[in-house]
Design a protein that fits this description.
An eight-stranded antiparallel beta sheet has the order 1-4-8-7-6-5-2-3. The mean pLDDT is 82. Helix 3 runs antiparallel to helix 5. It is 43% helix and 23% strand. The protein has 145 residues and is an alpha+beta fold.
């Protein structure tokens, strides 16, 4: 009788700890957002560097192009990755477009729609990563249309 009660308490306490962990993670994901201003430390940039797959495409200093890039990147809120398990490495390394700011921070997105802030996997509100990738691609290569 005592052994079965001890086992029951052990199972219940373990399940309670798992439930608390999952609830805490869900609350953290729900309420933790990074905005563009949080990442860049300021809302206006004078220079950004565009890279594709670790290869520098160009450095942007034109105010019109900077405004277009800033408008796109600031229109999203960057959240924690909502899933418990991350996708395979092959999906995370496919054609990564990255915008690096003056302070060294960066926002990137790959062709599969996975978003990275400073190299860490993140998500954007609404999980519209592929839409974000296509819009950023058009800013990287304006003659592609």
């Amino acid at each position: 009788m005592r052994k079965s009660m001890a086992l029951g308490f052990a199972i219940c306490s373990t399940l309670l700890l798992i439930l608390l962990f999952l609830a805490g993670r869900m609350l953290y994901i729900e309420f933790y957002h990074q905005s563009y201003a949080d990442i860049t430390d300021k809302t206006t940039q004078t220079t950004v560097t565009l890279t594709e797959n670790q290869t520098e495409v160009r450095t942007v200093t034109d105010p019109e192009q900077l405004a277009a890039i800033t408008e796109l990147l600031s229109s999203y809120a960057y959240t924690q990755y909502p899933h418990l398990f991350k996708p395979s490495k092959e999906k995370l390394t496919g054609n990564l477009l990255t915008v690096t700011f003056e302070n060294g921070n960066s926002i990137g997105v790959n062709a599969d729609g996975y978003v990275f802030v400073n190299g860490e996997l993140r998500d954007i509100e609404g999980s519209r990563g592929q839409e974000f990738y296509h819009k950023l691609y058009l800013l990287f290569y304006p003659n592609a249309t």
